[in-house]
Amino acid sequence: MRWVSVASAAGWAMGAAARAQVLHDNGPLVTIPPGACLPVGGMASEVQAQNSITGFAQGGAYRVADDFTIVDPGGWTIDAMTHVSYQTGATTPTITGVTVRIWSGRPGDAGSVVVWGDATTNRLVAGTNALTSVYRYYNQTCGTTRRVQTGTAAIGVTLPPGTYWLDWAATGTLGSGPWAVPVTITGLRGKPGANARQWDGTAWRDIFEGTPDTTPPLIAQDLVFELRGSVVAVPTCYANCDMSTTTPVLNVNDFVCFTNLFAAGDPRANCDGSTVPPVLNVNDFGCFTNRYAAGCSGP
């Protein structure tokens, strides 16, 4: 199988957020061979054998969601999402808006909450939505009417380690779609471990390919998106909040640094690692003071 990243397929040239480090690529979307009908340089995103869905609704009453996991101990600062979609018949960029939310917990499950974003603010960065050289079409049919588009949705949030769900919807100028593109891997009906969901205006439901009478009956799907930003650096000594290297590394500036993080609601201020809301509370100040008193052997 061949893995072509969202960034490679899009030919990134979309500003600072787009050029930031790729934190999570939930692709791929490009398959092989490319298809005889495509223009020179065109890449295929071909619906695989036994599958029948080219895209999932993500506009109007519909939203879609998929998960990502942060394992870096300092967490991530997420600057942007690469939004991937198509509208049938588009010959110019047609996506006009993208709304984004991030959940702690799977959307629709009891106890899951939105930790960032909303369903109304347009996060699409002006001028970033563009046509790619990727074309979505049914198995063995080859076609150019579903040309994939990508755009940058500005985010701007710092999250601690954990598993989260990205939830989004889009608007466009054409009547068909916007459609979210499922992860497509040559020779497979679905990405291993796929678990994307869709809000249909009433409830969150798992996204599947196939029908109950097919063999195998239902294949779970994932959706193509990309997150960009930076990994949050973690000092060797937690109490050295400002990561200074001049002796003494622990000083009043570290208290100021910690207080500023706490006031900003930054997850790095969650010194005691609590998970019960509010995760930032007076116990974190006691935790930081104790760590400061214990000292550091280095920066």
Short description:
11% of the residues lie in helices and 32% in strands. With 299 residues, the protein is mainly beta. The strands form three sheets. Strands 1, 2, 3, 5, 8, 9, 11 and 16 form an eight-stranded mixed β-sheet that branches.
Can you give a write-up of this model?
There is one protein chain. The chain folds into two domains: 226 residues, no CATH class; 65 residues, no CATH class. Helix content is 11%, strand content 32%. It has four helices and 16 strands. The strands form three sheets. Strands 1, 2, 3, 5, 8, 9, 11 and 16 form an eight-stranded mixed sheet that branches. It has a six-stranded antiparallel sheet with strand order 7-6-10-4-12-13, with no helix packed on it. The chain starts with 5 loop residues before the first helix and ends in a 5-residue tail after the last helix.
Overall geometric form: elongated
The total domain count is: 2
**Which spans have pLDDT < 50 for at least 5 consecutive residues?**
11-15
The value of Rg in angstroms is 22 Å
| Number of helical elements | 4
Order of helical and strand elements: HHEEEEEEEEEEEEEEEEHH
Number of strands: 16
Question: What's the helical proportion of residues?
Answer: 10-25%
Structural class: mainly beta
The major beta sheet can be summarized as: 8 strands, mixed
Whole-number mean pLDDT: 90
Distance between the termini: 45 Å
Beta-strand proportion:
25-35%
